[in-house]
Amino acid sequence: MAELVDIGKEKLAHDHLQETKSKVALQAQIQNHKLFFQKLVADMLLIQTYSNKILPSLLQKKETFWAEQIKEVKLLEEKSHQCGIKLQSLLQKWEEFDENYTSLEKDLEILVSTLPSVSLVEETEERLMERISFYQQIKRNIDEKHARLYQTLNEGKQLVASVSCPELEGQIAKLEEQWLALNKKIDHELHRLQTLLKHLLSYTRDSDQLTKWLESSQQTLNYWKEQSLNVSQDLDTVRSNINNFFEFSKELDGKSSLKAAVVSTGNQLLHLKEADAATLRAALAQFEQKWTMLITQLPDVQEKLHQLQMEKLPSRKAITEMISWMNSVEHQIADEDSERSLSSASQVKNLLQKYKEFRMEMDYKQWIVDFVNQSLLQLSTCDVESKRYERTEFAEHLGEMNRQWQRVHGTLNRKIQHLEQLLESITENENKIQILNNWMEAQEERLKTLQKPASVISVQKMLLDCQDIENQLAIKSKALDELRQSYLTLESGTMPLLEDTAFRIDGLFQKRSSVINQVNELKTSMQSVLQEWKVYDKLYEEVMMMTIRFWYSMEHSKPVVLSLEALRCQVQNLQSLQDEAENSEGSWEKLQEVIGKLKDRCPSVAEIIEEKCQDMHARWAQVNQDLADQLQKAQSLLQLWKACNSAHAEAAARLEQQEAKYQELENINMSGNNLAEILTPALQDVKELQHDVQKTKEAFLQNSTLLDRLPQLPESSTHMPRSTQLHSLQRASYLEKMLLVKANEFEFVLSQFKDFGDHLESLKGLIMHEEENLDKLYHQEKEENPDLFLNHVLALTAQSPDVEHLNEVSLKLPLSDIAIKTLQNTNRQWIRATATALERCSELQGIGLNEKFLYCCEKWVQFLEKIEETLKVNLADSLPALLEQQKTYEVLEAEVSINQTVADSYVSQCLQLLDTTELEERPEFISKFTKLKDQWQNATQSIRQRKSDINGLVGQWRYFTTSAENLFRFLTDTYHLLSAVKSQDCYSLHQTRRLIRELKSKEIHFQRRQTTFELTLEAGEKLLNTANLETKELIEKKISQLRDNWRDTELHVGELIKQLQNNVETWDQCEKKIKELKSRLQVLKAQSRDPLPELHEDLHREKELIKELEKSLGNWTQNLKELHTMKTDLTQHILVEDVMVLEEQTEHLHRQWEDLCLRVAIRKQEIEDRLNSWIVFNEKNKELCTWLVQMENKVLQTADISIEEMIEKLQKDCIEEINLFSENKLQLKQMGDQLMEASNKARAAEIEDKLHRVSDHWQHLFDVIGSRVKKLKETFAFIQQLDKNMSNLRTWLARIESELSKPVVYDVCDDQEIQKRLAEQQDLQRDIEQHSAGVESVFNICDVLLHDSDACANETECDSLQQTTRSLDRRWRNICAMSMERRMKIEETWRLWQKFLDDYSRFEDWLKSAERTAAYPNSSEVLYTNAKEELKRFEAFQRQIHERLTQLELINKQYRRLARENRTDTASRLKQMVHEGNQRWDNLQKRVTAVLRRLRHFTNQREEFEGTRESILVWLTEMDLQLTNVEHFSESDADDKMRQLNGFQQEITLNTNKIDQLIVFGEQLIQKSEPLDAVLIEDELEEMHRYCQEVFGRVSRFHRRLTSHAPGLEEEKEASENETDMEDPREIQADSWRKRRESEEPSCPQSLCHLVPPAPGPERSGCETPVSVDSIPLEWDHTGDVGGSSSHEDDEEGPYYSALSGNGPGLQSP
Q1: 23 near 91, Cβ under 8 Å?
Q2: Banded model confidence at residue 127, pLDDT cuts 50, 70, 90
Q3: Pair 1049, 978: CB distance under 8 Å
Q4: Which of 241, 1148, 1600, 1672 has the fewest C-beta atoms lying within 10 Å of its C-beta?
């Protein structure tokens, strides 16, 4: 007891809370604490209780010591009470946290499990809305748990501050992380689904609209295709189609935004969708394909429509219409500028859209502009002269149109660019206003939601949020002031101020004031709520501790071991607690008042507060109720206690008496004499004793009902009367079963005696009855019916087996002397009766043989056949059948002995017959006799053998049956004994040893009966071979049952013996082990009390010793477990009173072991803490270094936020986190300093080095933050500089692009104008060069920002910056190119002007000389030869003029290019020069044409005359030659010549008129010509006239000769030939030439007098005569001239002449 008191003091002196690593450990600590001190008090009470049983003389020696121990125990009880209350409150908080944590975790699991595990298969609108509604419900459920989560986390963090439990910290972190992850996941998925639904609705709506439009547009486009291919349309239809097609193009342009929206929404859906992406991707691809097909078809259709229009629309008209349209556009632009003032963004958008439509229409009309610009090149070269003026005028109109086109295009671009900048500025400012407005509204909503806090942490967080809002509000106020100031500045400048801007800014100021007021009100409210919450926490803590104190006191008052003293103390304690509880209700009223206030101020947490208070009040009420219940139970338990003890003592006394009586019955000798007389009263005593035991058992059961009213006690209270009562009941049950075994034994023995007596009396009576019947039959019917006597003899003989069996049974029973004498008398009577019967039967048999030998022989033969039939029957296969067969063969054996006399007589008679008589068939007789004799001998032997076999089987059956029954009875008795032993769970140690001896005796009996068991089984196995199927099954069943019962019973006996021996051995081992453990515990305790060393090396050695000590304690734990296991095993088999000794010793050892384990753990922890200081230092150093690296990475990494927010985050959040970790750095420094003091120099140097590195790294982090902030500020400055430069550049770019897009206008065409324009261009170029540095700076800034991860934190910003760079680069390059192109254009204009002026100067010089030449032509009163020369000269001059037309056209082309390209001067000098040059050339052309016309008219008349004259001369010559041929060379007859001559006359008639006309024409020429020419003409006419007269005269003479038919024909012929020869051969040639020419060119047109051939011949001078053959290209063909005109005499010679002439008669020379 003194040792336990010391341990209790040490337990209370040491605070073990910081060593608590889990709730289980805390529970174990509380349980150990409570159990230790409860047992301490219980031990005190137990010692007091048992001390009352000690002799007073022994008690007086320890009275003083015992009083001091009681005082110390009570003092320890009070202190342990306070410590237990503290631990219990902590445990309750932990359990509440675990309960809330489990509830929240379960809610989390439920919420997570309710989350859809698979994505939507069909992400339709309905499914998405269902899923969104589902997620919103989950979100609401999460929000409902939010306040409870805050409360649980707060309680957990408070709990962590009290205990050192990493698992608890992990739970808090895990819970927080899981809820945050769930919130994030649900928010993300909800946002995704909402975005997906939004995009899906938009996509569905827009895609349906786009699909319908694409289908209709494709049909419309197909219609336009058909219209574009229809060339039969008129101009109005084509124009209408073009206008409609333009409207369609505008509609297409308008739908491009719809298409872009569909594609953009579809792409976003592809990123958002988790299912059915392939369908969407295919739909988007189809949209792209259809849109691309539509877009690609438009230019072709547009081109074809414009081609149709241009085919039907003249270029001039097209230019006129274009100019008219551009005038209309310029007028509308001017009207918009003058009339409209932009007051809203919508007006700017509308105007911008209108201008964009204008520009789109211009782009559409670009086809017309391009066409009319190309139409000038489409004129053929033959139209150069005729269309020269028209082309020039066309070029001028085209230039005017191009100039106006450029002007309108530039104006529209400038307007659009200005409006876009204006709209961008307006949108930017409106966005700023909207951002501020959204922030203000968000803060208002946030402040509204912050009105109802959820916990103290929420209140503190709200105060911090208010401070944060105030800080942000200051920044936003500054931005708002800047916005108002900037708008005021813009209003005074060029930027219009929208109407609602001022109103919105004023609204922002009002909202700012509202937010400020809300923040102030919220701060005041939260401070008061925080104060009320602190009051609530204090009151709640008071009532909670009060409830826990009452509960703990009530639990502590429960007695560990029930006793009267323990119950009395419990009642006193409970009564005092009940009185105190009635006075503690005021605290609850105060708490309810504070809760009422908090419910109004914090409704979101009101449910939790109310639930907690209701739960606590329910606990308080439950504690009060439990207090009252326990008080009532304790009071009632006191009343039950005495009644239970007295009733149990009375029943136990009766049970002891009954056990003594049973022992007397057990001692009866079962093998003595007169057993039957002894067992009958003994059986009656057993019956009475059974009845008494049953009553005792009922008394115990009645007492058990009282014990059942006692409360269920823990395992430590097993020494209570309940266990004693149970043991008494088991003793009664054991006695009851043993009495049943003894009663069964007595009844079986008595039944054996009774069965033997009954069987003996029955057999005795049967023998006497049969003996009387035989005597009667022998005297009365000896001669009348010997067979009847024989039957009774056989019946008597059949009882022989029963007699033998009865004798065998008598040997196994302890019979009385009377029974033995009766059995002996019966045997003698049986022997006498059977001998007398057989003797008399033999006597009767002999008489029969003498009188009826043959009859007897026949009967003998029949008996022999009966034997053979009986022997044919197999042995019976069951005991009853065998017994019947045994009787049958006993009878047969008797009959054989009786009939043996007949057999002997038959043999003797047969032998006598063989000896005395000679038989005819002697061999046959001998054979039959021998056979019959052998049959009898075989039959008798078979009968004896069969009887022997049957007796053997019957003996086996009876042995098997009897042995099996005996063995079964032995096994049954053994089973009852085992059952009785097992029915009692526990025995005293003395009883256990007695049972071992008794069961070992039973085991010896088993060994003795083993031989009988084996013989029985062997007999049964033999019987299996002879039995039938049914009997065989019964035998097998009995054998199997016997074998199983034997094996099981023997096994159970051995097991029970072994178990009981194990119990005894376990008891001995326990006692031995307790002694060993006690001695070892003293040694270990001495080792643990040594003071800790100071040196580090000594600490390591001490650590090793502690490890060895722990190992020893671990082994001790195993020993305690083994001891506890053994004690537990003993408790199940040994009485509690005996085990209590071991239990108390073990418990005492266990308490000392627990105390030692605690000491060792504390000592180990102290050593570990001292040794782990370096490890902890390294870990904290590593943790701090890791945090520093993470912070550096965090500082250096780029977040997806703005640079201003990044700077703010670095300057605020990072610094706050650094301030939090500065405490860790300070702790590390302090730990390092302590370690340096306790370490050697090398270790101290290492620690100092690490501290320096941490300090350097810490400073480096500040440097990194500073450089990072500096770099971000520089980046932000770069971005601001870029915005500023881009803003300035944007204005300058618009202006310079506008200037460069303006066409160059020249006032006059001279060098000074060019120099002036070049100077203007140089000014623009200088302006561009001056801004090149700014552009280069922007490029450099963009390049820097592109490589800056802060400026390009994501792809969007990077793409935006790259797009800005590319756009600026493109515009800059375009400006440079336009500037260069503008300068080159001006220089090119000057070169074109110079070339034009040079070319025109040269042309003008030629024109002047040509005009002088054409002014004085030699065309009147001139000779024909001179006229011919003048004509040739002017024809060459005309050709020269026409050659100069190319030069003129070149000049015109140059001018038209200048006019078309707007390079002409506004003074129209170039135009005037071109028009003057063209006019002078035309006049020169007209003048030369008139001169040539006069000269050609004069020379043509003379040439016509000469041609006609020469043709007549040629005809006359041909006529002359033909006439000579006919007249002199032809061999034709006169008729033929006459016919030829008639032809000549017809030709002459035809040409006579022609000759006359020539003469008249010649006379006219003579009158018009100069005198020299007139003389020449007159001579030619006279010569022609003479030649005509000569030819005509020859024709006339030849005609007269032919018509005269004179006889001197030959002479005439010769004369004619001579005359022909005398004619001039030139006439013949001329005539033939004329005919040939007429035949060759019959289709040539006639001259003015119809006398000239179509092509004049070679010119001849006027002195040439018709006889001159030099000018006539004739060749003489003698075959043609001679024979061509003569006919052949016969047909056969025709081919010969044709072949000879080549081409026949008609062949002429070329």
Answers
A1: yes
A2: confident
A3: yes
A4: 1600
Ordered DSSP codes for 944-995: HHHHHHHHHHHHHHHHHHHHHHHHHHHHHHHHHHHHHHHH---B-HHHHHHH
Between the alpha carbon of residue 618 and those of residues 461, 550, 577, 611, 615, the distances in Å are 32, 14, 18, 10, 5
Phi then psi for 428, rounded to 5 degrees? -60, -45
Q: 353-373 pLDDT, tens per residue?
A: 888 888 888 887 777 788 877
pLDDT tens profile 1322-1350: 888 888 888 888 888 888 888 877 777 66
Q: Which of 389-403, 716-730, 815-829, 1265-1279 has the lowest mean pLDDT?
A: 716-730
Distance of CA 1235 to the CA centre of its chain: 54
Contact yes or no for 1655/1644 (Cβ under 8 A): yes
Cα 257 to Cα 291: distance, rounded to the nearest angstrom = 12
- CA 619 to chain CA centroid, Å, is 49
DSSP, residue by residue, 455-520: SHHHHHHHHHHHHHHHHHHHHHHHHHHHHHHHHHHHHHSSSPPPHHHHHHHHHHHHHHHHHHHHHH
- Report the distance separating Cα 1698 and Cα 1710, nearest Å: 18
Nearest 5°: phi and psi at 987?
-130, 155
Choose from 39-43, 667-671, 786-790, 1376-1380 the range with maximum mean pLDDT: 1376-1380
Angle, helices 603-666 vs 146-162, to 10°: value is 60
Nearest of 780, 774, 779 to residue 799 by alpha carbon: 774
Task: Reply yes or no on whether the pLDDT at 1675 is more than 60.
Answer: no
Q: What's the whole-number mean pLDDT along residues 1588-1595? A: 89
Closest of 533, 333, 565 to residue 453, by C-alpha? 533
How far apart are alpha carbons 856 and 845 in whole angstroms?
9
**Which residues neighbour 372 within 8 Å (Cβ) at sequence distance 6 or greater?**
315, 318, 319, 322, 398, 401
At which residue do the structure tokens 């400073």 appear? 1259
Share of the chain above pLDDT 90, in %: 1
Residues near 801 by beta carbon (within 8 Å), at least 6 away in sequence: 883, 886, 887, 890, 951, 954
Q: Which residues is 1134 bridged to in the sheet?
A: 987
Q: Which amino acid is at 920?
A: E
- Check whether 1678 has a pLDDT greater than 50: no
Q: What is the DSSP annotation of 1476-1518? A: HHHHHHHHHHHHHHHHHHHHHHHHHHHHHHHHHHHHHHHHHHH
**Residue 119 belongs to what H/E stretch?**
none
C-alpha–C-alpha distance, residues 947 and 890, integer Å? 7
Of residues 189 and 1355, which shows the higher confidence score? 189
- Report, in angstroms and rounded to the nearest whole number, the Rg of the chain calculated over CA atoms: 77
How many alpha carbons lie under 13 Å from residue 442 in its C-beta half-sphere?
A: 10
For 538-557, the pLDDT digits (tens) are 887 788 888 887 787 877 77
* C-alpha–C-alpha distance, residues 1568 and 1571, integer Å: 9
The number of residues making up the chain comes to: 1710
Query: Model confidence at 1640, in pLDDT bands (50, 70, 90)?
Result: very low
Highest mean pLDDT among 583-587, 601-605, 1475-1479: 1475-1479
Element (H, E) at 1415: helix 1355-1415
List Cβ neighbours of 565 (8 Å cut-off, separation of 6 or more): 45, 48, 49
CA-CA-CA-CA dihedral for 1391, 1392, 1396, 1402, to nearest 10:
40
Intra-chain end-to-end CA distance of the chain, in Å = 170
* Dist. CA 889–CA 950, nearest whole Å: 9
Residues sharing a CB contact under 8 Å with residue 1161, sequence separation 6 or more, in sequence order: 19
Q: Tell me whether residue 1424 is exposed, middle or buried, using C-beta atoms within 10 angstroms of its C-beta: 0 to 12, 13 to 18, 19 or more.
A: buried
What token pair was written down for 1206?
């990044």
